[in-house]
Amino acid sequence: MTYIWQVSVIGSLAGVLGTGLGGLLIALFGKPHRTVLGFLLAFSGGIMLTVVCRDLLPEALALGNPFSTLAGLCGGIAAMFALNHVVPHIHPNSQESRAFLRIGLLIGVGIAMHNFPEGLAIGAGYAASDSLGLGLAIALALHNIPEGMAMAGPLIAGKVAPLWTALWTAAAGLPMGLGAFAGALFGEVSTAWLSAALGAAGGAMLYLVFHELLPQSHTLNRPATTYYGAVTGIIVGFLL
Predict the structure, then answer these.
(1) Torsion of CA 47, 40, 99, 107, to 10 degrees
(2) In angstroms, rounded to a whole number, what is the distance separating the alpha carbons of residues 16 and 111?
(3) Which of 1, 97, 131, 158 has its C-alpha lying 20 to 30 A from 69's C-alpha?
């Protein structure tokens, strides 16, 4: 049982340090001007698009099949649609900072959905061999950096203090530890289930990008700001 707890701690660190570092990088810039806010939101959207298209969906297809991936994708979109109607919807023209705070928290939910199945992969990797599990943990920690950046942009726009921004983004990585615990405990994880779970995380992120981030960015400034922010986010996402 001690071994399982060690794997859980490693999984938690991979999630927390990855997203926390990404959040810290954005938080260090402080509270930005309105033009920068629009750029940051689009930048966050660009990073999330890269994560979905370069990592989540290809990994989901590799683990399962088009049906399991599509089922998860639709489920993730439906879940965020429902959550969007549960969380009070505040438009920027009324209470702007609260609107951005809401977006940042919704992104955190999407990241948490993503981190749990990846934690399962870490736990299952350790069940196979220590070297495989550790390699997965390191790779996923690096992979989480742009996700933390994506969450931190709206939080900073919502006037959340830099320290709290870093802490909230770090907290979004905690489900990876829960996933690592479950993966190490059960050893074998259904690849079809992992495929659907990753597809759901991808659907949740796509919903946030096209329903929240890019539209909000567009209302803050000129369309060119949204364009350059999104393209920059995509480039940074690929580089990281």
Answers:
(1) 20
(2) 11
(3) 131
Q: What is the DSSP letter of 212?
A: I
In a domain, 127, yes or no: no
What is the rounded distance in angstroms from the CA atom of residue 4 to the CA atom of residue 184? 6
For residue 72, what are its two tokens? Answer: 């998860």
Distance CA 115, CA 201 (A): 9
CB atoms within 10 A of CB 88: 8
Q: What is the pLDDT of residues 12-38, one digit of tens each?
A: 998 899 889 888 888 887 656 667 777
Q: What is the pTM of this model?
A: 0.68
Q: Give every CB contact of residue 144 below 8 A, 6+ residues apart in sequence.
A: 14, 15, 17, 18, 19, 22, 111, 115, 173, 176
Rounded to the nearest 10 degrees, the angle between the axes of helix 2-27 and helix 92-128 is: 150
102: domain range? 29-115+146-170+184-239
Whether the CB-CB separation of 11 and 118 falls below 8 Å is answered with no
Task: Tell me, yes or no, whether 195 lies in a domain.
Answer: yes
Do 119 and 183 meet the contact criterion of CB atoms below 8 Å apart?
yes
Number of domains in the chain: 1
Neighbouring residues of 73: CB distance < 8 A, sequence distance ≥ 6:
57, 60, 199, 200, 202, 203, 206
